[in-house]
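pasting input
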Amino acid sequence: MYKTIIPVLILIFLFGCGQSNQPKSQPEEAESKIIDSLISSRIVNFENSLFSIPSPHQITMTLKQQNIEYNPSYLNPTSNTLNYTNSYKKALNMGVYGADLGYLNTYDKTQEAITYFSVIKTLSQELGIINSLKKDTFERIEKNLSNQDSLLHLLSNSYQDIDIFLKSNDQGHIGALILAGGWIESMYLLSRFSENKNQELISLLGENKNPLENLIKIISLYTENNRIYQVLLEKLIALEMIYQNIEITYTYNKTEVNPEQKFTKVYSNTNITISDDVLKELIEEIKALRQFIIS
Amino acid sequence: MRVLITILFILTFGIVNAQVEQVDSKVRDYLDNTYISDGQIYRVMLNHEEEGEFDVTFFAGTQYRLALSSTLAQSNLVYTVYDSERNILFCNQDFDNTPYWDLIFTSTINCKIQVKIYDKQKRSGIAVMMIGYKQS
């Protein structure tokens, strides 16, 4: 046994620490192949492009900034969890409840947040991703439900851990659904509150054209031989078609750089114009898409 | 022989995996506690001088922190933020290849973050990016 392991360990040591100028040796080539196999299972990679979906909290943060009154009737009732019997629905609605939890947290609704949090915990158990989280994560989240800032950090770090876990375990498709559910729910909340003609919210709705396109690219990676991804993709594309009618103009302006404080201020400007008809269409389509997910 | 290859594969896989996790942890530290992560970790495998691109929408009134590192030395990693018209908004090469930088947006903008790895030995590396945000 030792006769086998010791040379292996020596080999590992030799190329595990390989930072020399020597030409590429066989072990290095082997390492390169192993990295490739590791990577192919770990990242959502589409011709070396990756797509970002904004955190749902960024949207609920804007609702609070705009002094929009709290309205719990827009949230997905926790009783609906009984309807989610397959992993796709569970994943999509884990994203939905995550966005709702962000909304409740933004409006300091601790009691309601506890209920939504326990639903997320149950869904993560049922999806088998609870082990991706550190042992004390749920305990820490429970303790910080009334502390908005700490809770946000804990939740976003948990989503990162889940993201890594799913990609590492070849379950990026589940991660994609959690992302989709979160984005759709935040868009639903935004669209419902936009009905009151708040221009800031309407612009934010229009500004999500690019994140929608990114989401379409992510979901399209998993459509092969899977009906639920195909249907979801079709619905996202239908929404994107409405987005095509939004007028978006962009003007580049010079940036201001502060090297001491390591920041750049960007003054470029995007202008969004949405007609009343397009807005109405957009709101209806988002409503239907969200209904498809939560039903 | 097959046993040897299997053990070699498993151990090497573990080493590379641990290396990537170390980079994840380092990048997470760059966000520090003042920035909330967007909940995603972006990883891309790059060969020498190969480009990786990240499509990102930055929202108005928000301050973002971009944090990037790789499995190779920090000096090997170059990242550039472009707007939709390919104007350069920021490049870390102008600031000693800094691993993190803050960006403040007065209007919502769609950007591309291009990442490159330059290595004299032409090695491949894994670039890791995280995006943190807070109200500005």
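fyi The radius of gyration of chain B is 17 Å.
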